């Protein structure tokens, strides 16, 4: 069971509890699933009971108990894969899944570059209004369009002539309308802080796009040679290098005559951090689309790359010497391959290449 499927299961439990009169609340549009925080347990957690408690007129733990019973009942009929549900703290729901780590890696590898794509914005049409002849706004709108399309929506860019846009630069502001911030007519004013003049030494397409997308809309981008340096201080290099290292591990395994097989990788902090980054990817895509913020995806890719390097440095993915490939090696390789897949898919949505060799 993936985080998206788990979110749907919890949402279905809320809806059933409302239909049967156990809860008197407005059913939320979606339920956020995340990795447990300190003090939590299991594979995933949700604070939905705390969010609903006030409207329900009941303590959060009581709401959590209602939802837990619904979810455990649901797993027998239509939601297999949930091994247990525990309530912690004031009312957090903590979920333990059957083979959760292997299932997550398997899900990434089966979907490939489309991992995290969904129908979260199915049928939504958005008009991105940007200042005409402004390079950064153009690049941001293009990335937003790709991310929205990956979630089933459609975004169209409209160029506003100078003097007709009133919002100050650095704002991604939506006209009054729907609860998610989009105007009633589907319009969005997209005005990141403009790009500086092009540098004397051209950066090239990928470093330029990254330099314009990685900073938040209200931050001024830097078009400097730093984006060309192949060292850890360059976030784009870290992301692309992590992807190439993952592919190198796959090639190395092929030379040794074995391939990846998702399985239990271990419970070390390095493994869990990387699994968390992979599990968060679908949620990050939805957040980036709804907030028209590709910078969130860019920062998530940096975090995923950093988690991959910590895992890579702390774990022997490939056998050495006379060591024979084991199930553990195959599972570690699958996790590394999944990390490379997420990095390649995210870079693709940003319009940036994921090279095989760096």
For this entry, give a set of tags.
alpha/beta; 3 domains; 11% strand; 7 strands; 358 residues; four-stranded mixed sheet; Gyrase A, domain 2; Isoleucyl-tRNA Synthetase, Domain 1; single chain; 10 helices; three-stranded antiparallel sheet
Task: Note down, in words, how this protein is organized.
Residues 154-191 are annotated as: Disordered. Residues 4-97 form the Arginyl tRNA synthetase N-terminal domain. This is arginine--tRNA ligase. By secondary structure, the protein is an alpha/beta fold. It has three domains: 3-98, Gyrase A, domain 2; 125-204, no CATH class; 235-349, Isoleucyl-tRNA Synthetase, Domain 1 (Orthogonal Bundle). The chain has ten helices and seven strands. It has helices at 3-19, 48-56, 60-77, 100-111, 135-150, 205-213, 235-255, 269-290, 294-314, 327-349, and strands at residues 44-46, 82-88, 92-97, 125-131, 154-160, 171-173, 187-191. The strands form two sheets. A four-stranded mixed β-sheet has the order 5-4-7-6, with helices on one face. The chain has a three-stranded antiparallel β-sheet with strand order 1-3-2, covered by helices on one side. β2 and β3 form a beta hairpin. Mean pLDDT is 89; it is low at 175-181.
């Amino acid at each position: 069971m993936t985080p998206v499927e788990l979110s749907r299961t919890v949402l279905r439990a809320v809806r059933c509890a409302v239909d049967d009169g156990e809860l008197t609340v407005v059913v939320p549009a979606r339920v956020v699933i995340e990795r447990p925080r300190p003090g939590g347990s299991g594979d995933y957690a949700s604070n939905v009971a705390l969010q609903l408690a006030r409207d329900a007129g009941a303590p959060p733990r009581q709401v959590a108990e209602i939802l837990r019973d619904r979810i455990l009942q649901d797993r027998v009929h239509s939601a297999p894969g949930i091994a247990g549900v525990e309530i912690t703290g004031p009312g957090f729901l903590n979920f333990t899944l059957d083979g959760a780590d292997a299932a997550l890696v398997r899900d990434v590898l089966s979907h490939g570059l489309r991992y995290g794509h969904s129908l979260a914005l199915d049928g939504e049409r958005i008009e991105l209004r940007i200042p005409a002849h402004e390079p950064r706004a153009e690049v941001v709108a293009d990335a937003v369009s790709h991310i929205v399309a990956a979630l089933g929506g459609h975004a169209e860019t409209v160029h506003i002539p100078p003097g007709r846009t009133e919002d100050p630069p650095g704002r991604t502001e939506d006209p009054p309308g729907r609860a998610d911030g989009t105007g009633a007519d589907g319009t969005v004013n997209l005005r990141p802080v403009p790009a500086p003049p092009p540098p004397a030494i051209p950066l090239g397409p990928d470093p330029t796009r990254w330099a314009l997308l990685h900073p938040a809309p209200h931050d001024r981008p830097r078009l400097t040679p730093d984006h060309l340096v192949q060292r850890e201080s360059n976030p784009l290099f870290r992301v692309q290098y992590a992807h190439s290292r993952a592919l190198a591990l796959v090639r190395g395994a092929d030379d040794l005559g074995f391939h990846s097989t998702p399985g239990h990788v271990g419970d070390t902090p390095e493994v869990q951090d990387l699994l968390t980054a992979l599990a968060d990817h679908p949620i990050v895509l939805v957040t980036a689309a709804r907030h028209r913020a590709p910078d969130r995806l860019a920062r998530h890719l940096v975090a995923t790359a950093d988690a991959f390097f910590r895992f890579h440095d702390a774990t022997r993915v490939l056998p050495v010497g006379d060591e024979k490939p084991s199930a553990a090696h195959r599972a570690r390789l699958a996790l590394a391959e999944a990390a490379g897949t997420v990095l390649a898919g995210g870079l693709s949505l940003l319009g940036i290449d994921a090279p095989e060799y760096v």
